[in-house]
Amino acid sequence: KALFRELLENDTTVVTSEDIYKMFPDLNENAVQAKIKRCLRGGELLRLYKGVYAVNTSYSHKAVAEEQVAQAIDKQSYLSGLAALRFHNLIPEVVNFKTFFGTKNANINASNIRFEIKKVDPELTSLGVEEVKVADNTFRVADPVRAMFDTFLGLKMSPKTRNQICAYLRIEDEDSERIDWSKASRYARRFKSDLADSIAHAMATEA
Questions:
Q1: Contact 196, 183 (CB under 8 A)
Q2: 3-state SS class at 206
Q3: How many CB atoms lie within 10 A of CB 154?
Q4: How far, in whole angstroms, is CA 52 from its chain's centroid?
């Protein structure tokens, strides 16, 4: 169980097949896969997605963050929608099911880890997205304006004013003032859709 010992020693919670190959450069692919399969059979590793595994928390005693798993599945993925608005402390509700956007579709429902990745145009995966570090986790998250675009585009919903947007999302007036609404028109041009233009117009209309 050299693999499992090394993962524990490094405080690893999420690992990919690629990571494991790098840990054992002198072994061929079959030998490395055999190590992975032994850890899966023994319950030390849990398969979350093709080539992505979590260390069983019963052994590591460390929670597995959805953000880590999403990054392991798709390095271009970013947290968005209501979960991103919650991350920015703009909405009051705790969001239990997180939505990420990236270059592939994925639905994860394993070992108490539940989230989805929705596929978007790869050229849009950096628009209004920043990299952040929370505790030991580094991941990507949409800024508030991008998160709102992703929300309303996904719903195919066209609010009429900024007040309607805030009311629908339950964003308070004082929190609305922290949002850089001026980004809306620039973002809309990148989306190249009538609905995005309509959403940007609503963001610019304060009444």
A1: no
A2: coil
A3: 14
A4: 15
| DSSP designation for 51 | T
pTM above 0.85, yes or no: yes
34 pLDDT above the threshold of 80? yes
Per-residue pLDDT reduced to its tens digit, 105-132: 999 998 789 999 999 999 999 999 999 9
Structure tokens at 36: 């992975």
Residue from 139, 145, 161 nearest 79 by CA: 139
Sign for the pseudo-dihedral over CA of 66, 69, 71, 76? negative
For residues 49 and 109, give the distance between their C-alpha atoms in angstroms, rounded to a whole number.
9
What are 134's strand-pairing partners? 137
Triad 183, 171, 65: Cα angle to 5°: 85
Segment (H or E) for 45 = strand 45-49
Closest C-alpha to 87, from 102, 65, 69: 65
Q: What is the DSSP letter of 27?
A: S
Give the residue among 60, 58, 48 at the shortest CA–CA distance from 13: 60
Q: 135 — phi, psi (to 5°)?
A: 55, -120
Give the pLDDT confidence of 142-194 residue by residue, as tens digits: 999 999 999 999 999 999 999 999 999 999 999 999 999 999 999 999 999 99
